[in-house]
Amino acid sequence: MEQRTTTASHWGMGEAVTVDGKLLRVEPDPRDPSPSDLLRSMAGMVYSDARVRVPSVREGFLAGDGGAGRGQDGYVPVSWDEALDLAAREIGRVRETRGNEAIFAGSYGWASAGRFHHAQSQVHRFMNAIGGYVRSVDNYSFAAALVITPHVVGPLRPMLRDATTWPVVAKHGELVVMFGGVPPGNMQIVGGGQARHRIPGLMRKCLEFGVKFITVGPQRSDADAALDAEWIAPRPNTDTALMLGLAHTLLVEDLHDEAFLARYTVGWDRFRPYLTGEADGVAKSAEWAAAICDLPADTIRDLARRMAAQRTLILCAASLQRADHGEQPIWMTVVLAAMLGQVGLPGGGFGLCYGCNGIVGQPVNDYPWPSLPQGRNPVASFIPVARITDMLLDPGGAFDYDGREYAFPDIGLVYWAGGNPFHHHQDLARLREAFRRPEAVIVNEISWTATARHADIVFPVTSTLERDDIAMSRHDERIVAMKRAVDPIGEARNDFDVFSGICARLGASEAFTEGLDAQGWLERLWEEAREVGAAHGIPLPDFADFWEAGSIDLPEPPEDKVLLAGFRDDPEANRLPTPSGRIEIFSETVQGFGYEDCPGHPVWRAPYEWLGSVEAKRHPLHLVTAQPITRLHGQLDDGEMAQRDRVGGREPITLHPADAAARGLVEGDSVNVFNDRGACRAGLRISPDIRPGTAVLRTGAWFAPGERRNDPDVLGTLAEVGNPNLLTRDKGTSRLGQGTSAQTTLVQVEKFRGVG
Ligand SMILES: Nc1nc2c(c(=O)[nH]1)N[C@H]1C(S)=C(S)[C@@H](COP(=O)(O)OP(=O)(O)OC[C@H]3O[C@@H](n4cnc5c(=O)[nH]c(N)nc54)[C@H](O)[C@@H]3O)O[C@H]1N2
Ligand SMILES: Nc1nc2c(c(=O)[nH]1)N[C@H]1C(S)=C(S)[C@@H](COP(=O)(O)OP(=O)(O)OC[C@H]3O[C@@H](n4cnc5c(=O)[nH]c(N)nc54)[C@H](O)[C@@H]3O)O[C@H]1N2
Ligand SMILES: [Mo]
Questions:
Q1: Of 17, 324, 493, 668, most Cβ neighbours within 10 A?
Q2: Residues 58 and 7 occupy one common structural domain
Q3: 706 pLDDT tier (thresholds 50, 70, 90)
Q4: In the chain, how many domains are there?
Q5: Residues 201, 33 contacting (CB under 8 angstroms)
Q6: Ligand 2 binding pocket mutation candidate from 11, 189, 319, 654 (most atoms within 8 A of CB)
């Protein structure tokens, strides 16, 4: 019998269609104007060959190998009781012998939508119930931006929520300059879910009002083709130099707004000598920038003049700051906008991370819906999230972060639930070495990801469609009942049940469950949501009625928002949360940290590898590891969209026709992509719409159907299907932000002559 049930995911709301308990497909909600095709991949993920079906223990672990076989071992199926006993024994032992400071459960990752079964909330609550854990701070997405913005204009997250909306740009804007674009493929995703994907439509609407778009970056496709955007393609990682060249042009042609700089900023006088070259003998002129960016100087001058002549919004994508010195393009975007003097005007100023998701620039509300309480973590120790390998390889070692020095904790046990470090981290060979250090590694996973295959104990867990949950994201326009559509696959259980089981063995049941089962928690969360709703004038029905209804529409959000409009109106009454209360072109605080790689004002510093470096002689292609259009990171790689996109069973890599020809390569070839850190294979696509000297290999491929899946070395499998993090370098953006610098990578590509 056919059944339809509502569901929600990071890629949108939908309806699961089952017949006799088998999932056929997930259909998009008909009210979604731009639904994501990723819904079509969900059935493939649920029934994937790669599902973890039973609790499993690594062979070498049972033989006491001290971790040496992680990533290369086979697994032994065990009963749930045995696995839970083992996990409780390991956690208990590490806790007793080395304390909770020796447990790392940062467990970074996107997990799945849903307020209760959210894996990070579950694992952190569990860890707090048993005495705490070493955590991680910031994220892979925009860590450098998170750390630099409070020094310059104020914290990033409120700026994302309060970003100037596209309807305002349509009405008041004239020019939008998008560094790193606003890739339409990325707009499919909002963490926690999104009922209506409006951004593609809202951006296209700008055209009707005569707004012009320019995209700056290695790929033309970073702008929606329908926008007919102009395309400027500097060398990757040189945007800061380009922005300095624009700033210099504004200055020497007297196109900058001195009155704005005087009233709303501090430190212009400290930055100006750097720009003119008075400070270091190098004028950051259009010619200077042209040589670095490999663009005509006239293009830069012309762009500066057009920006000054019109109402211009400058956007800087998060990708620019996932690079060596990633703090600089963010800071320089703000400075450039300040020089134009349009900050706080409708359709002018700057915007950060618009390409990150469907919230930034879409009209949104902000409701503090409840989430699973995390409890208190008594362990103070933390790492910036992308310093995981450094931590495991260098216990006790010192690291810098945002003006202070810290020491890496000495980790005995790693617990991961809802994230995939062997997807998200850089230089995976180095990460593997690091993952072999702890006494024990425990992972809850849906699938046999590379991370699961580095664990000693693997718990099989349910995915979204195998359990009941509630989607209520702060910024969404609908609350959705995420209903269980199919039975759990194999012996999979919910993360909550895994942690309840371990807690029962460690005498922490009451602290973790508070006597409630999953249904009890859903009802408690719903009662709290009703209180939040009541406080915001949104009456919510009782749980049974909500569940029956399937979803509840929330009030339409306000359409018009202008970032920093209040500050512009009255900079005294609406001081910015920076030390001076104004935009800091020069930051005494940052200068005071004494970091050569992030001084007191924005600077151009050559990245550790780039097309202008000597290294480019041996590895002459800049590797862009953009977000995958056909999946979410590693999630859904086993689904229809990602598998259909493969070229000869491998992840596609895109080269410019000239670069392909120079290597004797044709479309569809299997290629070898390599540098000194590693190598992987990929399937060749050729496109004139990428900058010569650039190669695009999107992140996240790991699923190999059939034979290749059984490679005993899981990194070997990643190399075969085409995973770029075998090639990326593992170094912080700077001593300030310590974010990932994945986008700073050079490679060479050659025809693959091996088997397959
Ligand atoms: N080279 C390079 N690397 C990058 C980036 C880049 O631009 N270039 N981008 C980075 C960015 S921005 C990010 S955000 C990260 C993303 O990195 P991650 O967030 O770690 O990637 P995901 O694949 O989303 O990992 C989520 C994992 O959780 C599992 N999961 C889902 N639901 C559940 C659940 O309910 N319970 C449990 N236990 N598990 C669940 C999924 O199977 C999946 O393996 O990657 C980063 N890595
Ligand atoms: N479908 C899908 N959507 C996603 C995700 C996903 O996995 N799948 N992940 C989500 C997450 S977690 C995040 S954080 C956001 C990330 O959002 P972004 O960081 O905006 O996304 P990216 O795709 O990494 O990068 C956007 C573009 O930047 C360009 N670029 C790379 N290097 C440079 C450079 O040096 N200069 C310039 N000017 N451009 C450069 C590339 O051409 C790339 O396509 O996306 C989100 N959206
Ligand atoms: Mo991200």
A1: 324
A2: no
A3: confident
A4: 4
A5: yes
A6: 319
